[in-house]
Amino acid sequence: MVVQRRTDQTSDAPRVIRVRVKYLSVYHEININSQSSFGELKKVLSGQTGLHHEDMKILYKDKERDSKMFLDLCGVKDRSKLVLKEDPMAQEKRLLEKRRNAVVEKAMKSIADISLEVDRLAGQVSAFETVINKGGKVEEKSLVNLIEMLMNQLLRLDAITADGDVKLKRKMQVKRVQTYVETLDVLKVKNSTKPQTQTQYQQRDLLSFVDEEEEEPRRDSGASSSGTPAVVTNDWEKMFDSTSAAKAVEPVKPVPPRFKWEFFD
């Protein structure tokens, strides 16, 4: 494979030349490699003039030179004179590009923030889905609030205007949020068809031990507040009391006399 060199092998090594560049009414003397490009010369002049190197145009022999062209190939030698001018069109183009990049960066950051929020909400969707699919029941208000939060993320995504990769990422997040909303709609229907007694049973089952411990103190406090002493009786005592009461209300039968008495008038 043959590769053509920019200079002949017999030529001398690159040397440093001094060029004079006029900007407005000031001359700037720049020491630079003779094989450097005009773009490299612009970067050196940027530090001395304060102009951005993309906002410059350099004229040599009354002709504008492209930034990719080389000094020696254009005939620039030691003590050559060049003219530097500001390029308004290039400056406007650069500012527009900078503004466009800022918009893209802001949009990317917004999408990243929304993605993190959707990740957090997705965990709640998964938790509700697990509970309902296993036969449980959740508050309908919780499902409605979660749907509203996801819809707010859709509104935030809709407010982002971008093209290219940013638009593609926004579209992916929109589809993702829509999928979660559809899942919650299905769960909402399933949750509404479950009987209320099922949830109450599950809650009593979870709190059975706590309720048993709290029930007796609650009864004692209720009895003391009413002013009547609490009496603890067993089943056999209740049976005894009921038998005694039955005997107490039983009518007394008259006893027949043992002797026959004769009554005289």
Question: Can you walk me through this structure?
Answer:
The chain has 265 residues and is of the alpha+beta class. Among the domains are: 16-86, Ubiquitin-like (UB roll), CATH 3.10.20.90; 94-193, BAG domain (Methane Monooxygenase Hydroxylase, Chain G, domain 1). It has helices spanning 38-49, 88-133, 140-158, 165-193, 196-206, 208-226, 235-249; strands spanning 16-23, 26-33, 56-59, 64-65, 81-86. α2 runs antiparallel to α3, α2 (88-133) runs parallel beside α4 and α3 packs antiparallel against α4 (165-193). The longest helix has 46 residues, at 88-133.
In short:
This protein has 265 residues and is α+β, with helices and mostly antiparallel strands. The protein has seven helices and five strands, in the order ββαβββαααααα. α2 runs antiparallel to α3 (140-158), α2 packs parallel to α4 (165-193) and α3 (140-158) runs antiparallel to α4.
The low-confidence runs, each spanning 5 or more residues with pLDDT under 50, are 1-5, 197-214, 221-240, 243-249, 261-265
Q: What letter string, H or E per element, gives the SSE order?
A: EEHEEEHHHHHH
Per the CATH scheme, the topology name of the domain at 94-193 is: Methane Monooxygenase Hydroxylase, Chain G, domain 1
> What does the average pLDDT come to?
78
How many helices in DSSP terms? 7
| DSSP helix fraction | 55-70%
Main sheet: strands, sense, barrel: 5 strands, mixed
Calculate the terminal CA-CA distance, rounded to whole Å.
Answer: 168 Å
What strand line-up does the widest sheet have? Answer: 2-1-5-3-4
Could you say which structural class the secondary elements and strand pairing correspond to? alpha+beta
Beta strands, count = 5
The first-level CATH class name of the domain at 94-193: Mainly Alpha
Cα-atom Rg, whole angstroms?
A: 48 Å
What percent strand? 5-15%
